[in-house]
């Protein structure tokens, strides 16, 4: 069986390119024209590769790396071996990410799975849909009446774009994705299996549960990325909104009328109940649960597996079930650990009598 390389580096970068992009200063004696043709981890990098290091766990790998150049934080710069050009950066990981995007532009967003550059055979595009020049539609995709799609966007195989949906420019809509009652900005990425715009879970409870029509929309602003198999319900009467630059991981559930601010980070397994608001720059760790009708303030961070059942002030860090400020949470955990330890020692001193 052949061993394909899915993301081959395109072109290359000189040390001068790397230094300029990262804000680093080339050390004395380094050749600015030296060309790096790819990037690799410390342990497998060769003289043609760029690597990075900003974590003490990888100190031993840095000492023996064969990388041609390494982006490194100041505290680890002295550990670079003599054969590796040390490029000191305050944020090596961010600099590396930017340069990796230049080496592998095709990895920045999903492209056509069919290798196409237009409307492929087997795609179903309604005659009333409006697609700008340069839209790619893979086989099996269904695009409904009144849909508008901007140039440079890619619609993956078997994606379904419902009537009236708007998709901006340079978007990537993954395989098997479904979109209805939704408006997407520019440069939005939806990974395979994402579901946007389906009914919110709304019922008037009683002896029989009466369905409440969900007549809102989903609004996704520019530069949002949404992971595989994530679901975002349309609003009941107001819109569900995902703010500019927000990044949402796989397997997240966002309910109707939720408003998420700009540049939030929502990690896998999170569930956000209806009509909750996240202000800008909020971070929710994996498997966080948020009950409905709450407000999580700007820049707040919630630890993974926490359960949020009340409003969270801006800039705070909370964790636990129910979630609380981290200092209170840590005191609680410490107290429980001491009680458990004490209980175990007491049991050793006074073992239970043998049953007769």
UniProtKB/TrEMBL annotation:
<keyword id="KW-0012">Acyltransferase</keyword>
<comment type="function">
    <text>Catalyzes the N-acylation of UDP-3-O-acylglucosamine using 3-hydroxyacyl-ACP as the acyl donor. Is involved in the biosynthesis of lipid A, a phosphorylated glycolipid that anchors the lipopolysaccharide to the outer membrane of the cell.</text>
</comment>
<keyword id="KW-0441">Lipid A biosynthesis</keyword>
<dbReference type="GO" id="GO:0016020">
    <property type="term" value="C:membrane"/>
</dbReference>
<feature type="domain" description="UDP-3-O-[3-hydroxymyristoyl] glucosamine N-acyltransferase non-repeat region">
    <location>
        <begin position="35"/>
        <end position="100"/>
    </location>
</feature>
<dbReference type="InterPro" id="IPR020573">
    <property type="entry name" value="UDP_GlcNAc_AcTrfase_non-rep"/>
</dbReference>
<dbReference type="GO" id="GO:0103118">
    <property type="term" value="F:UDP-3-O-[(3R)-3-hydroxyacyl]-glucosamine N-acyltransferase activity"/>
</dbReference>
<dbReference type="Pfam" id="PF00132">
    <property type="entry name" value="Hexapep"/>
</dbReference>
<feature type="active site" description="Proton acceptor">
    <location>
        <position position="256"/>
    </location>
</feature>
<dbReference type="InterPro" id="IPR007691">
    <property type="entry name" value="LpxD"/>
</dbReference>
<dbReference type="GO" id="GO:0016410">
    <property type="term" value="F:N-acyltransferase activity"/>
</dbReference>
<dbReference type="Pfam" id="PF04613">
    <property type="entry name" value="LpxD"/>
</dbReference>
<keyword id="KW-0444">Lipid biosynthesis</keyword>
<keyword id="KW-0808">Transferase</keyword>
<keyword id="KW-0443">Lipid metabolism</keyword>
<dbReference type="InterPro" id="IPR001451">
    <property type="entry name" value="Hexapep"/>
</dbReference>
<comment type="subunit">
    <text>Homotrimer.</text>
</comment>
<comment type="similarity">
    <text>Belongs to the transferase hexapeptide repeat family. LpxD subfamily.</text>
</comment>
<dbReference type="GO" id="GO:0009245">
    <property type="term" value="P:lipid A biosynthetic process"/>
</dbReference>
<dbReference type="InterPro" id="IPR011004">
    <property type="entry name" value="Trimer_LpxA-like_sf"/>
</dbReference>
<keyword id="KW-0677">Repeat</keyword>
<protein>
    <recommendedName>
        <fullName>UDP-3-O-acylglucosamine N-acyltransferase</fullName>
        <ecNumber>2.3.1.191</ecNumber>
    </recommendedName>
</protein>
<dbReference type="InterPro" id="IPR018357">
    <property type="entry name" value="Hexapep_transf_CS"/>
</dbReference>
<comment type="pathway">
    <text>Bacterial outer membrane biogenesis; LPS lipid A biosynthesis.</text>
</comment>
């Amino acid at each position: 069986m052949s061993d394909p390389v899915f993301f081959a580096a395109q072109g290359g970068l000189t040390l001068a390119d790397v230094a300029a992009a990262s804000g680093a200063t080339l050390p004395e004696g380094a050749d600015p024209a030296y060309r790096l043709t790819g990037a690799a981890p410390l342990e497998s990098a060769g003289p043609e590769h760029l690597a990075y290091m900003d974590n003490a766990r990888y100190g031993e790998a840095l000492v023996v790396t064969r990388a041609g150049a390494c982006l490194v934080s100041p505290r680890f710069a002295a550990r670079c071996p003599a054969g590796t050009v040390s490029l000191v950066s305050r944020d090596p990981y961010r600099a590396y990410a930017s340069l990796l995007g230049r080496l592998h532009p095709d990895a920045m967003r999903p492209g056509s799975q069919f290798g196409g550059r237009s409307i492929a055979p087997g795609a179903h595009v309604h005659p009333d849909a409006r697609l700008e020049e340069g839209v790619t539609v893979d086989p099996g995709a269904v695009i409904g009446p009144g849909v508008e799609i901007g140039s440079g966007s890619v619609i993956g195989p078997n994606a379904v774009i419902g009537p009236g949906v708007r998709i901006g420019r340079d978007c990537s809509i993954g395989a098997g994705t479904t979109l209805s009652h939704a408006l997407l900005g520019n440069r939005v990425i939806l990974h395979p299996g994402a579901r946007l715009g389906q009914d919110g879970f709304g019922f008037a409870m009683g002896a029989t549960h009466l369905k409440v029509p969900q007549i809102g929309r989903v609004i996704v602003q520019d530069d949002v990325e949404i992971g595989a198999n994530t679901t975002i319900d349309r609003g009941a009467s107001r819109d569900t909104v995902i703010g500019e630059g927000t990044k949402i991981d796989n397997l997240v559930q966002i309910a109707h009328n939720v408003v998420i601010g700009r540049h939030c980070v929502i990690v896998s397994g999170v569930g956000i109940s209806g009509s909750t608001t996240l202000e800008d720059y909020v971070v929710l760790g994996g498997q966080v649960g948020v009950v409905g009708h709450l407000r999580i303030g700007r820049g707040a961070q919630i630890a993974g597996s926490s359960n949020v059942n009340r409003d969270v002030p801006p800039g705070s860090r909370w964790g636990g079930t129910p979630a609380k400020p981290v200092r209170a949470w840590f005191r609680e955990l410490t107290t429980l650990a001491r009680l458990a330890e004490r209980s175990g020692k007491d049991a050793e001193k006074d073992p239970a009598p043998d049953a007769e």
